[in-house]
Amino acid sequence: MRTTSSNPVATITASLRVLIVEDNPYLRKLIRSLLVNVGVKKIDEGTDGLAGFEAIKNLDPDIVILDWDLPLLNGAELVRIIRTPGTPATVNVPIIMFGTSAERRPIVEAKRLGVNACLVMPISAKTLLDRIVAIFAKPCRALEPESGQSPTSQFPI
To answer: Which parts of the chain are beta strand (E)?
Structure first.
């Protein structure tokens, strides 16, 4: 995040470099359009898990929007690699993972791996913006649930 503005949300979105990792070109275009609609100007894309990993290493994005189901390396495998200490990729890059299922198992698995937020398709620009703002407003909240809470209570879908 590199600029300032009187509107803090506009400041966040205008300065972000976002990486979308999705194999479906139509979904990449949809997510790109949603990001543009909320003010994101710097958007990069990867078409599979390996391309996503290379893009994270080379582009140093501020946030990654990652599909759960990817060819070569699926979303969970990619997150596992990214979050491994000593990996050349940015270990602490915020990750929003999305998928087509609201089943509890993949959501809990994503949280365990270090994903900051999950979204279930279809998604809206407002929902995507809310997740981005929440990640940058309280970056550690999704990764450190309070004791006694259910595994998904601080991990919005």
So the answer is: 17-21, 42-46, 63-67, 95-99, 117-120
